[in-house]
Hints:
This protein is an alpha/beta fold. The chain is 41% helix and 18% strand. 47% of the residues are buried.
Amino acid sequence: MGLMRFTITPPDRITEEMAQQAYLCGLDRVPWKAWLQWRPGELVIQRTTAESGNLHLPWAIEGHGLLAISTATLRERAEPYALPLELARGKIGQIRNQLAEWQMAGLATPAEVDEKIRAAVRTFGEAVGASRDVAASAALAEKALRLAIDAATMLAGVFCEQALAIRRRASGKLSSFLGADLGVSPLDDYTAGQFLQTFNAAVVPMLWREIEGREGKFCWDVYDQQVAWCRANGLTVFAGPVLEFDRRCIPDWLYLCDNDFESLLAFSSEFVGAVVERYRGKVDVWIAAGRVNTAEAMSLTEEERVKLTARAIELTRALDSDAELVISFDQPWAAYLARQGNDFPPLHFADALLRAELGLTGVVLEINMGYSPGGTLPRDPLEVSRHIDFWSMLGVPLYVAVAVPSSSQPDPLAQRRTVTSSGTWTPADQQAWANRYLSLLLAKANVRGVLWNQLRDCEPHGFPHGGLFDLRRHPKPALRQLASLRQAHLK
Length: 491
């Protein structure tokens, strides 16, 4: 069994909760199942492999809040690693590698970015030189890491600005999609007007629980209205996920099939068929299945999840051959694998389905950032950019579904058992996140659209305070930010 030890200075630099979110992964970015032991000043990680790997864990950084940071690749050794020093080393290496890659592609970097990187490298060298004074070395490493994150954020911003300019020069305003989930009830007139000013696409959710609350009894009223409204207003219609084994999506009666896979397959096939037949020709993009890599609501094996997903894809393609067809993957960094030890990471899951040639035309990556458990740890823009590029190896268009909180207070209508994972969030924080990250996503040529996961906090929803309208139905500042983004860059 492999063993890695890390010393933490000062000893209370991270909490036990933060330590329990740490994970190790190899060059393929697949987290290894691991067992963590934390006590003030030390983190010990055991795993079944002895390969070199990168440690990822949340770390509070001055001016940036809590971010998941990665060390460089570390080998196993008897003596412990100094964690602040290794985090700084890892981030600086990541920035320099990305900078070299982008410069070879033609990126012009301002002197401010280069100077910030040099300052981070210089400070890191001082931290290494002071290693005999543990406290001084850790303080310098913290400063180097902060400078590196400053540089990473600036570098990602430079890439975003220049990539968008190149794309705009080539084709004018972008044909990318900017949309949001319509929720489980029709929009009032004010909300509908705000929606049309902001988005060029909409997601009609198709919740199984709402459509077939009783076995064999279908209620289509809300979804008929939503699809008709989208078509009447010229919005690109995304529908789904049609099949999603999330607690808020599946009907109660389906739990009777929890240990009867053949019945579950039959019922799910019947539901997928009914939905696609009803809206065939009215939907532009079918999300045939959602969160297929987690499926938290049922006792499904990995093989069963693959079979259900493949069946949903086959049925959708057979019944509607003209629409685009995608599936969504939750938590694309797959940190949950460090606790579960599944054999089928999400990227491999997607690759297997694409190789099966079932008619899949794209993939949705669901990033609910700032929530735990069940969400994605906050990451800096450069790391998000790198991970999108990693998923681009699939060679198909990507869509990114996002949500971030606007408050850290309890949310009475949130249905997921999750909390915000990175301190205090405000509406201004949500707006700033949307400004920085969504423009970066749209700058990526392989990202065909960005979809906001929740529209309104005033109706039952998944993640706390993740909507663009608050509990009093008032628009949040993030909505204005999205409207500005569309006006500036999208058709």
